[in-house]
């Protein structure tokens, strides 16, 4: 059985590394293959933890662990009853929360992510829940030039996670 962490633990993990928190919040990723791919990318990008909701979200299963190539065993995952409340709590802890949606006001690479930051990626079909979107500090978007107006959730997550990594470690 997988052992989930508490949300405050994720901030403590970042503090122990003397780094500003870098979190990923998933708002209803139901496909275990997408979830596993996201965890693999999150681990590679140095995310301190991933937050998922208890309902209408793929849990960490053997399939997720396999697809993540084991990253699910190394990236802390917090499971919360309500993503909107988790966003509110994180903002109260001075974490800037960015949502990713097609109607974001700025492009994903324009904000400064060097401070405490969390990214919310929505579900495969619905995107971000209304209340989650409203509670984000800012909603950003990916540029889309083709006729399809969305990307797979794991691809979108990978793009924004690596932008945070690029900004934080540009000198490396």
What descriptors fit this protein?
7-stranded parallel beta sheet, Alpha/beta knot, 172 residues, globular, 6 helices
Overall geometry comes to globular
Helix content: 25-40%
Mean pLDDT: 95
Give the uncertain stretches in residue-range form.
none
| Count of DSSP-assigned helices | 6
- Strand percentage lies at 15-25%
CATH superfamily label: SPOUT methyltransferase, trefoil knot domain
Just name the CATH architecture.
3-Layer(aba) Sandwich
Count of the separate structural domains: 1
Rg (C-alpha, Å) = 15 Å
Order of helices and strands: HEHEHEHEEEHEH
CATH topology: Alpha/beta knot
| The CATH C-level class name | Alpha Beta
Spatial strand sequence of the major β-sheet: 3-2-1-6-4-7-5
Number of strands: 7
End-to-end distance: 38 Å
Report the sheet with the most strands, covering strand number, pairing sense and barrel closure.
Answer: 7 strands, parallel
Structural class assignment: alpha/beta
Please tell me about this protein's structure:
The chain is of the alpha/beta class and 172 residues long. It has one domain (7-168): Alpha/beta knot (3-Layer(aba) Sandwich). Helix content is 36%, strand content 19%. The chain has six helices and seven strands. The protein has helices at 7-16, 32-45, 62-67, 83-92, 130-135, 153-168; strands spanning 22-27, 49-53, 77-80, 96-100, 106-107, 117-122, 138-141. Strands 3-2-1-6-4-7-5 form a seven-stranded parallel beta sheet, sandwiched between helices. Helix 2 links the parallel strand 1 (22-27) and strand 2 (49-53). The radius of gyration is 15 Å and the shape is globular. The N and C termini lie far apart (38 Å). The relative contact order is 0.19. The model has no long low-confidence stretch (mean pLDDT 95).
């Amino acid at each position: 059985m997988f052992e989930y962490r508490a949300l405050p633990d994720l901030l403590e993990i970042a503090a122990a590394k003397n780094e500003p928190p870098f979190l990923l919040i998933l708002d209803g990723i139901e496909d275990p293959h997408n979830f596993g791919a996201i965890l693999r990318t999150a681990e590679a990008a140095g995310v301190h933890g991933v937050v998922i909701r208890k309902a209408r979200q793929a849990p960490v299963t053997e399939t997720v662990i396999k697809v993540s190539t084991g990253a699910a065993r190394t990236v802390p995952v917090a499971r919360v009853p309500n993503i909107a409340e988790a966003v509110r709590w994180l903002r109260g802890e001075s974490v800037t929360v960015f949502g990713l949606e097609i109607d974001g006001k700025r492009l994903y690479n324009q904000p400064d992510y060097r401070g405490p930051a969390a990214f919310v990626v929505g579900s495969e079909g619905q995107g971000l829940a209304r209340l989650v979107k409203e509670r984000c500090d800012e909603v950003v978007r990916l540029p889309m030039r083709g006729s399809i107006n969305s990307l797979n959730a794991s691809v979108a997550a990978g793009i924004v996670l690596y932008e945070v990594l690029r900004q934080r470690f540009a000198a490396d």
